[in-house]
Amino acid sequence: MRAGAESIVRIACAYVAFAASAVAQDRVHEQIAAAVAEVDAGRIEATVRKLCSFGTRHILSRTDSDTEGAGAARRWLKAAYEEIAATSDGRMTVRFQEAVLPCLRSGMPRQVKVVNVVATLRGASDPGRAYVVGGHYDSRNSDGADGEGAAPGAVDDASGTAVALEAARVLASRRVAATILFVAYDGEEQGLLGSKVHAQSLADEGVDVDGMITCDIVGNTTGMDGETYDGYVRCFSYAPTGNDSFGRSMARAVSRAGRRYVDGFDVKLIYRGDRYGRGGDHRSFFDQGFPAVRLTEPREDFSRQHQNVRPRNGVPYGDLPDYADFGYSAQVARVAVATLFELASAPPPPLVSVARLARDAYDTELVFQLPDGVTRCEFVWRETTEADWTHVMSMAEVGAVAGRGGRMLARMPGVCLDDVVVGVRAISAAGARSRVATPPEPDRFAQRPRSSTRRGK
Ligand SMILES: [Zn+2]
């Protein structure tokens, strides 16, 4: 029984020299830092002001004008993406994605047409795996069914739409392994309609969506209390059970990219899908089983969101661009660029099949499979009560060895599985890290509501 463990230790020595040379090759960090440095707040401002200039982008607004309404806005967005695609050496394509969907909102027609703008940057070596970044370009005012009145939607959500466009501009000329989709969603305000169409189509096509980021309300830094909140972005993630869902793993990847590449800016992990009573386009991806997160500013100003443009008690109401902080939106764009660049450059996450506490020591043993052609990985762990990974262990420290059928065996010394969460991420030759894969929790049980709750007492 001990022989297996000893052979792990013995063969592990062979990895020491290999891992040391591999670390020296982590070129990807400079590439990501260079991309992040290209994010331009001025371009984000120009996009937001242009989108606001269309008056309203409500799903029922006019589509026959070149200067007003949703039709003009999406044609402008498509042209802006096409200009970016021209820098991609033919790898980026841009299209409208159209569908007619039922709409359940009161005052709305029973059916509405949604039109997303989708820009696809095809991956160089693993195009069937995709990462998605989006914002919603539709807007609304106090009356959710008003397709004519002004609804500038500067922060909600021209800001997120502009972040996705700026991320596309920075990344279009760079080669990455996986595909990146940049999307301006329609119909978010009417029940996440555009993202439902998009997520469903990706699921139907069998695309391996390994991560989705919706940037929604990422442009206001003045709280209703007059304080400035510009040091972090909130990252919401759904979990059907436990804290180690795909979505939470994606949230930690976003947090890692933010910490590493965006100085003086933090990603605040919030372990719930969204704010109370609210929703966003990441929900459509979660519903398809894809890892998805929502980025939103720290403190929303409800005197602007979903409000008619008007003065009220001396306070300017309405979602106007003059009250947006474009420098802040640029920070969010940097987080998005770093996350997308790293994950799309990395291999897909490993597959963990077995996690067990060793029988002869308080060590964790993992059995997992690295993606084809991948030889590097690293191991992470944290206390069950920690939100994010606190410890990283290299292959040399862990003694990862190849087993039969492409399986890898690893032994994390001194890591007592029963008390902690462990995971493993794959690393490309250039050093890009995948999302972390974790073994399932041992106590994933469905819970029965208390009988008094069921009776409504
Ligand atoms: Zn929104």
SSE order in H/E notation? Answer: HHHHEEEHEHEEHEHEEEHEEEEHEEEH
Taken from the alpha-carbon principal axes, the silhouette is globular
Number of strands: 17
Overall pLDDT? 91
CATH top level class name of the largest domain? Alpha Beta
With helices defined by DSSP (H or I, 4 residues minimum), what is the helix count?
A: 11
- The largest beta-sheet arranges its strands as 1-2-4-3-5-8-6-7
Ranges where pLDDT stays below 50 over 5 or more residues in a row are 1-21, 453-457
CATH architecture descriptor text of the largest domain:
3-Layer(aba) Sandwich
- The assembly state of the depicted protein chains is single chain
Superfamily at the CATH H level of the largest domain? Zn peptidases
Distance between the termini: 56 Å
Strand content: 15-25%
Describe the fold and architecture.
The protein is of the alpha+beta class. It has two domains: 2-27 and 347-427, Immunoglobulin-like (Sandwich), CATH 2.60.40; 38-345, Zn peptidases (Aminopeptidase). Helices cover 31% and strands 24% of the residues. It has helices at 2-24, 28-37, 41-52, 69-85, 154-171, 193-204, 246-261, 282-287, 326-345, 395-398, 451-454; strands at residues 92-102, 111-121, 126-136, 178-185, 208-215, 232-237, 266-270, 292-296, 310-312, 315-317, 351-357, 364-369, 376-383, 391-393, 401-402, 407-412, 420-427. Strands 1-2-4-3-5-8-6-7 form an eight-stranded mixed sheet, with helices on both faces. Strands 11-12-16-15 form a four-stranded antiparallel sheet. Strands 14-13-17 form a three-stranded antiparallel sheet. Helix 2 (28-37) packs antiparallel against helix 9, helix 3 crosses helix 9 and helix 7 crosses helix 9 (326-345). The longest helix has 23 residues, at 2-24. The relative contact order is 0.15. The site of zinc ion (ZN) has 6 residues, from helix 5.
